Amino acid sequence: MERRKFIKKSILTSIGASIVGGLYTWQIEPFWLEFVNVKMPIKNLPKNLIGKTVMQISDVHVGNKFKYQYIIDSFKKASLYKPDFVVYTGDFVSYETAEQFNQLEEVFKHAVIGKLGTAGVLGNHDYGVDWLEPNVANTISSILNKAGINILRNEEINFDGLNILGIDDYWGSNFNPVKVMSKYDKSKANLVLCHNPDVCDLNVWNNYKGWILSGHTHGGQVKPPFLNPPILPVKNKRYSSGEFDLYDGRTLYINRALGNLYQVRFNVRPEITIFKLEEKL
Fold first, then answer.
1. What does the CA dihedral 261, 148, 153, 235 come to, rounded to 10 degrees?
2. Which helix (H) or strand (E) holds 22?
């Protein structure tokens, strides 16, 4: 009888733990936002920009996959930091239908805008179903530009001496990194935005030295303790999340995403990154 009671108790305990764990991964961690602080040394940084902040927001995924009021609330929290620059690194929507255009407009009424400048690049989900709808990307770009976000489609923009180069999405129809990287001027204080970190392994960089900010991976969204994420949408499985030395003068940072492709996270909290600019000697 004691053995039966022990087995029954063990089964009930396991079921209870599974329910609690499931609720955590579904209802808590996907909305447990973390603000991550990182130092960002940049060569040729103007003296007036030392100590300024660059906020990175990535993979917002406005749509029907989760309640996007969470994104609006997160934007409000982020705005309290009063960032000097804000950069968005793609996947603004989880596109299904034109309904996402209205949702995007509603959410980005509350967009975080930098005091000195705001820019962004598109991600694969911004190119519509199967990344094959350039008209969707054009509409999303227009909405975001009206919201105060300069969407860079293989273009560069300069804000108060910080030169931002934006590469359009790797899987989209407008991918042309050479077009923008051919403009790379090593005498400027440069920063590159590129949604998919796999682009770092292509021969397109024109001897660029500096930081590259990416997203796309969500850090896998699920990461067993002490193990690598089982699912990463990149060829180079080294590129999960966080800071990477590329050993050639480039430093890659992969943001874990603010939004969720699917409403499940474990050991990979959603992230907004705040970089503090420093002069690199």
1. -20
2. helix 2-23
Residue 201 has pLDDT above 60, yes or no: yes
Question: What's the rounded Cα separation, in Å, for the pair 47 and 70?
Answer: 37
Nearby residues of 257 by Cβ (< 8 Å), 6 or more positions away:
58, 59, 61, 91, 215, 217, 218, 219, 221, 270, 271
Strands 210-214 and 242-245: unpaired
**Residues across the chain:** 281
How does pLDDT run across 211-265, given as a tens digit for each residue?
999 999 999 999 999 899 999 999 999 999 999 999 999 999 999 999 999 999 9
| Structure confidence by residue, pLDDT tens digits, 63-72 | 999 999 999 9
Residue 218 tokens read as 């969500």
Contacts of 19 (CB under 8 A, 6+ apart): none
Q: What is the DSSP letter of 126?
A: G
Give the predicted TM-score (pTM) of the model: 0.94
- Mean pLDDT, rounded, of the chain: 93
Cα separation of 264 and 24, whole Å? 9
Alpha carbon distance 26, 265 (integer Å): 7
Return the DSSP state at 186: T
